[in-house]
Amino acid sequence: MKKTRLHELHRALGARMIEFSGWEMPVEFKGIIEEHLAVRRAAGLFDVSHMGEILIRGKDALRFVQYLSPNDAGRLHIGQVQYSALTTPQGTFVDDMLVYCLGPEEYFLVVNAANTEKDFSWVSSHQGGYDVSAENVSESYSQLALQGPRAQEILQPLTGINLAAMQAFWAAHGKVAGIDSLVSRTGYTGEDGFEIYTTSENPGAMAEEILRVGRPLGLLPIGLGARDTLRLEAKLMLYGNDIDETTTVLEADLKWIVKFDKGNFLGREALRRQWAEGIRRKLVGFELIDKGIPRAHYPVFVGGERAGEVTSGTFSPFLRKSIGLAYLPVAFAKIGTEIEIGIRDKRARAAVVPTPFYRREKK
C-alpha cells in the first residue's frame, strides 16, 4: 500500500489505519462521531494527500480543459477554483474534480485517489490537436484540509496570506508554517475551510504546527470515517457511490455545472438530448422515518416495488437522524414522497427530503 508523507504522524497520533484506494490511510483517531462534531463545532485537520493532481500547461490549456469538462473554465480568473467533472461522450462521469486556474496557460486538476491513473490516461488520450502538456504530479504533492468554523482563526497566524480577504473557491500561493504552499478556500465537509497543497518533503511539520495552534480551539485530527459522514450531510458526491460512468451529470442533480452555451465539450450533445427529452431518474436525499441505518446498495422501494438502491447512507452524527442518497424515477423524486429502504429482512419507512441535509450558517 502507498503511504502519504504524514503516515508516521498518523501513527504517532494513534490513528486506526485502513486500506483505501491502494493507500494506507487513517479512518479515525478519537472516533468518528467525536471527530465529525469537532469539524461542525470547531475544526478538523485531514490528510488528503492521496488525492490526485494533474497539471495542464500550454497555449491551448483553457481550450483543452473546456473540452474535457462541462463547467465553464473560461469564467475563471487567475487564482479562482471551480467544481467540475471529466465527462464521457455519453455525459457520464469519468470523475468529478476541482479545476484551479493558476495562470493564463496553466490549470491544476484535483481528482479522486482511486481514479488518478484512469483520469490521467483519459486526459492524455484526448490531447491530440491541442498545444498542451499534461503531467500527473500527484506524487509530488501532499494535501491537508483544515475545515470548520474556526479554520481561519487557526490558520491565519501561520500564513502571510490574508485569509479574511479570500472568498470561497479562490486560492493563493504563500507560506504556511514556513512551507511554500497553495491555499484554497475549498473543502469536502460543508463547512468553511481551506485545502493546502505543498510539494514539501516534510508536510508533517506543517500539520504539527496547525495542530499546535488549533488544539486549544478544539481542533482534532480527522480520519476518513468522519470525512464521509460530513460530506454526506452536505450532499457532496462520492465517486463510485453516487456518481460513476453509468450516471449522467444531469441525473446526479448537477445541472448547475453544465454550461451548454460555452461551446463543445465531451458529452455535450448527449446531455443536451437528455435535458430536452427529460431525465428519467434523479439523485435525491431521504431520511428514515423508522429506525435503522441505510447503507450503500440497500434496495429502495416505492409502492411496494423496487425502484433503486441507496448510493450513500449513514446515521448523521450532527443531525441525529438516518440519511441517505438514492436514484429514483423522476415521478417519485418529489419532496415528501414516502419510500421504503430494505434493511436486512425488513423495510424501513423513509421520505424524500430537501438537500443538502446540513447547511452551515453563514456569518
What about the largest sheet? 6 strands, mixed
> Over all CA atoms, what is the radius of gyration?
20 Å
SS-based structural class? alpha+beta
Strand content: 25-35%
Note the run of SSEs as H and E: EHEEHEEHEEEHEEHEEEHEHHEEEEEE
Percentage of residues assigned to helices: 10-25%
Q: Could you tell me the number of beta strands?
A: 20
The CATH architecture of the largest domain can be named as 2-Layer Sandwich
CATH superfamily caption of the largest domain: Probable tRNA modification gtpase trme, domain 1
Helical region count? 8
Unreliable segments of 5+ consecutive residues: none
- The CATH topology of the largest domain corresponds to Gyrase A, domain 2
Shape: globular
Q: How many domains is the backbone divided into?
A: 3
Overall mean pLDDT: 98
Our measurement of the CA-to-CA distance between the termini, rounded to an integer number of angstroms, reads: 42 Å
What order do the strands of the largest sheet run in, or round the barrel if closed?
11-12-13-10-4-14
Name of the top-level CATH class of the largest domain: Alpha Beta
Task: Walk me through the structure.
With 363 residues, the protein is α+β, with helices and mostly antiparallel strands. It folds into three domains: 2-49 and 141-233, Gyrase A, domain 2, CATH 3.30.1360.120; 52-124, Alpha-Beta Plaits, CATH 3.30.70; 280-353, Elongation Factor Tu (Ef-tu), domain 3. The protein has eight helices and 20 strands. The chain has helices at 7-12, 32-41, 61-68, 116-125, 151-155, 203-214, 224-233, 268-277, and strands at residues 2-3, 16-20, 23-28, 43-47, 52-57, 81-87, 93-103, 106-111, 133-136, 142-147, 171-176, 179-184, 193-198, 219-222, 281-288, 299-302, 305-316, 321-329, 338-343, 346-353. The strands form four sheets. The protein has a six-stranded mixed β-sheet, with helices on both faces. A six-stranded antiparallel beta barrel has the order 15-18-17-16-19-20. A hairpin with a 2-residue loop joins strand 11 and strand 12. Helix 2 (32-41) packs across helix 7 (224-233). It starts with a strand and ends in a 10-residue tail after the last strand. 44% of the residues are buried.
